[in-house]
Amino acid sequence: MVLVWAVGAAALRLTLAAPQRCGTMTSSQALSSATAAVQWIERAQKPDGSYIYDYDVASGTELPGYDAVRHAGVTMGLYYYAALTGDRSSVSAGDAGLAWLQSNLVEEDGWAAVKDPDSTIAELGSTALMLAGLEQRRVATGDDSFDGLMHELARFILSMQNADGSMTGYFDATAMTPIAGSRSLYFTGEAFWALTMMQTAFPDEGWGVASKRTATYIATQRDTAEDVSFPPWSDQWAAYGLAEMTTWTRLTDAEVAYARSLAERYGFMTRYESQRRDDEVSKLLQGPETRAAGMGTWLEALDSLWRVSKADPRLGDITATLGERVGCAASILVHRQITRAEAAKDPQPQFAEGAWARDGVTRMDDQQHALAGLLRARAVLDSSGEQ
Amino acid sequence: MEFLKLLVVFFAAINPAGVLLAMRAKQMHSVGTPRIAIAIGAAVAVVLLVLAVVLDARILDSLDIDAESFRIAAGMILAACGVYTLWAGVPGSRAPGEPRMAHGLFPLGVPLLAGPASLAAAVSYSVDQGRGETLGAAIAWVVVSGLLLAVWRGRWRAGADAISRVTGALLIVVAASLAISGIKAV
User: Fold this and answer.
1) How many whole angstroms separate alpha carbon A237 and alpha carbon A244?
2) A271 CB-side CA count, 13 A
3) What is the pLDDT of residue B101?
4) A85 alpha carbon, distance to own chain's centre
5) How far apart are CA A163 and CA A145, in angstroms?
6) Is B180 on the interface with A (CB under 8 A)?
7) Interface check B1 vs A, CB under 8 A
């Protein structure tokens, strides 16, 4: 009997009841970490405005591949840094990234969309994130010279929106027509967030109507309509959008319920991640550590949902817990970031420092999502003091 | 309402009918467990349950695990105990041989009255629902189990077996609820 208990306890200790280490975290640490990530992106930018996409830190080699959606996201991240910190040093790199996007635009009848240069398909997500980036640029600089382009991008998003609020994901740039029935679980949330920020930026133009239509779809229909196996779909973009919506409208009960379900999902993922270790036993029993592009999105979502809970009393009961999860996720991210000292041993330290790598490889959106999450986490950390 | 829920949880975790069967598994016609052994078993169980409740947060802190994650682990423990009871008809070790005073410590005190299920539930619910109500519900079933054991003469074993197995099923339900609440907790 004693042996059974001992084996059982050991099994639990190694699996479900593994120790959690969230560490301590301050707002200034979050900012330093985000700044290091921005500086990695700036160093990784090429003359044409694109970025190193996939990079093997240990061997110092760039891996093949590129993605316009992630390019738009990283560019948005540079503007986001400026918007949230007031430090405009990242705007010039953002503008170079923006120029790359502008060189890949498809334009017609008052709308514009981003097309991957190696494809004939325009993806809704890259257009939405380009718009989100311009919205952040506008906040950061006060410059309204891109307002016309913003409206063109937003009109493309509207043209891809269906009556039920769902979004057609892909546009055939050869036939110049949306690909009917195409969907992307990522693009819908990205488009939703971009539309909510259009309402904030241009409150008299009615962008909120389209925003609410997609919010309702996401909250009530998407998981079923798009065959999500374990609902809700982990959508940090939707969380961003809901947080933005609370600044200009009251969420419906369904949206609040959806926000709560997202919080439950991200809270669990964060707790589980905090039990993982970068060792073989943990990898075997609990799986490998989540890459920063994933964990960063969790932090972005938790940050956003914390804002929703602060703004809406119906979620007030989870504000404190969300704050704890934000502190935990942020501390995990910061402690996994490659420091200058750690980077010194790599072949090209400038492409290692400030990055997050898993299995020795970093991808540009690892830095984007982590920095965005950490920047937003500062408000939570400041609100609750040191975690 | 919460106390009633805790009474259900600890009824399932301690399983009075299963305790009776386990203590008389090999004592078909004997006089039963000595009352002094029952008192020892109940006292040991109460001490362990009090320790679990009083040290609840410290136990979790020392394990570096938060309350929500422990709920999941506790749910797994309860589920395993429930499955065993459903299968075997008793919630743990059976009393060996003829009644002896030593049976009060083992198996009555540990693991029948204070076993993996009741102790894990005590730590988890104490953190989430409060120490007083948790301890009250747990001790109530320790006392009830002890009283039943003192007066039971081994009749209606088939009925006790059925109740014990159903209680095991109930423990699985409680376990699922606990684990899911841990998973869904923010």
Assistant:
1) 10
2) 28
3) 86
4) 18
5) 32
6) no
7) no
Minimum-distance CB partner of A264 among B69, B77, B184: B184
- Is A17 in contact with B111 (Cβ distance < 8 A)? no
Q: Are strands A111-114 and A121-123 parallel, antiparallel or unpaired?
A: unpaired
Q: How far apart are CA A211 and CA B172, in angstroms?
A: 44
Identify all chain A residues contacting B77, using CB atoms and an 8 Å cutoff: 8, 12
**Which amino acid is located at A265 in the chain?**
R
Q: Which two tokens stand for residue A4?
A: 């059974």
Given an 8 Å threshold on Cβ–Cβ distance, is B185 in contact with A16? no
Q: Say whether residue B62 is in contact with chain A using an 8 A CB cutoff.
A: no
pLDDT digits (tens, 9 = 90+) for A4-14: 778 888 888 88
Measured CA to CA in angstroms, residue B44 lies from B33, B102, B136, B186 at distances of 16, 12, 16, 36
The 10s digit of each residue's pLDDT in A138-179 is 999 999 999 999 999 999 999 999 999 999 999 999 999 999
- Torsion (CA) B54, B112, B30, B165 in degrees, nearest 10: 140
**B167 close to B86: Cβ distance less than 8 angstroms:** no
Decide if A18 touches B, using CB distance below 8 A.
Answer: yes
- pLDDT tens per residue, range B89-115: 999 888 887 778 889 999 999 999 999
Three-state DSSP state, B166:
helix
Q: How far is CA A290 from CA A266, A295, A332, A340, in A?
A: 13, 6, 11, 22
Chain A contact for B184 (CB, 8 A cutoff)? yes
Of B76, B116, B185, the CB nearest to A264: B185
Are the C-beta atoms of B113 and B41 separated by less than 8 Å?
yes
Query: Which residue from A321, A261, A332 is spatially nearest to A295, judged by alpha carbons?
Result: A332
Structural element, H or E, at residue A131: helix A124-141
Q: Nearest residue on chain B to A13, judged by CA atoms?
A: B63
For residue A271, give the nearest of B66, B93, B116 by CB distance: B66
Instruction: Phi first, then psi: give them for residue A123, nearest 5 degrees.
Output: -95, 135
Q: What is the mean pLDDT of chain A?
A: 95
- Provide, as residue numbers in chain B, all residues whose Cβ is less than 8 Å from the Cβ of A21: 64
Tokens for A338, please give them. Answer: 């490659």
User: Which residues 14-53 on chain B approach chain A with CB closer than 8 angstroms?
Assistant: none
Q: How far apart are CA B177 and CA A187, in angstroms?
A: 35
| Residue in B63, B80, B92 nearest the CB of A19 | B63
Whether residue A268 and residue B183 make contact (CB cut-off 8 A), yes or no, is yes
The C-alpha of B176 sits at a distance from chain A's nearest C-alpha, in angstroms, of: 14
Give Cβ neighbours of residue A362 (< 8 Å, ≥ 6 apart): A54, A55, A57, A292, A352, A355, A356
Query: Using CA atoms, how far apart are residues B100 and B107, in angstroms rounded to an integer?
Result: 11
Token output for B20: 């009776």
